[in-house]
Amino acid sequence: MVRMSAEERRESVIRAAMIEFARGGYKGTSTEAIAKRVGVSQPYLFRLFPGKQAIFLEASRRCCERTTEVFRKASEGLQGEEVLHAMGAAYQSLIADDPDVLLMQMQMYVAVASAEAAGDREFGETLRAGWMEMYDAVLLALGEGETTQFLAFGMLVNVLVSMGFRPDHRVWTGFYESVQPK
To answer: Is the C or the N end of the chain the one with fewer CB within 10 Å?
Structure first.
């Protein structure tokens, strides 16, 4: 049996945390569930991360980073409307291939609102920073006016996919083909 380094184990914890938090949310996910998914003890988990919040923040950062990278790669070398369709199609593929990415994003929004309702603004600031990197990548590729529209449509796609609207449902009428679910 090959032994993992602490960095490799940390990576496996982040991947497991993304899955657990995506499905159970910040408040509904225990560190025990994350440790169990990875196959480590909770004390070992806390040697890698100072607590549940740090694990959630890292999983959220990774989720935003992954989405940002998808947008950057899709827009490389393209201009105008080609960028819009390429990024839309790439995002649609991302959330179709790994639905936990979408669910993790949705959980991030809920976690920020919940934390801020409880008076914890710092938690939201950390998550907003990751989201802003994604926003800036889209802004660089599309420009101001298109960025707002692209992200607005993207959020609607997030809601419709999260709620399980089938690809042939009438709510998808009017979307670019590149962002319609397959």
So the answer is: N
The alpha carbon of residue 125 and the mean position of all alpha carbons in its chain are separated, in whole angstroms, by: 16
Taking a C-beta distance cutoff of 8 angstroms, is the pair 46, 2 a contact?
no
The whole-angstrom separation of Cα 107 and Cα 157 is 15
Instruction: Give the N- to C-terminal CA distance of the chain in Å, as an integer.
Output: 41
pLDDT over threshold 70, residue 182: no
Q: For residue 134, what are the CA distances in angstroms to 14, 27, 33, 113, 145? A: 19, 25, 29, 19, 16
Q: Name the pTM for this structure.
A: 0.91
Report the mean per-residue pLDDT for the chain.
Answer: 92
Q: Quick check: helix, strand or coil at residue 133?
A: helix
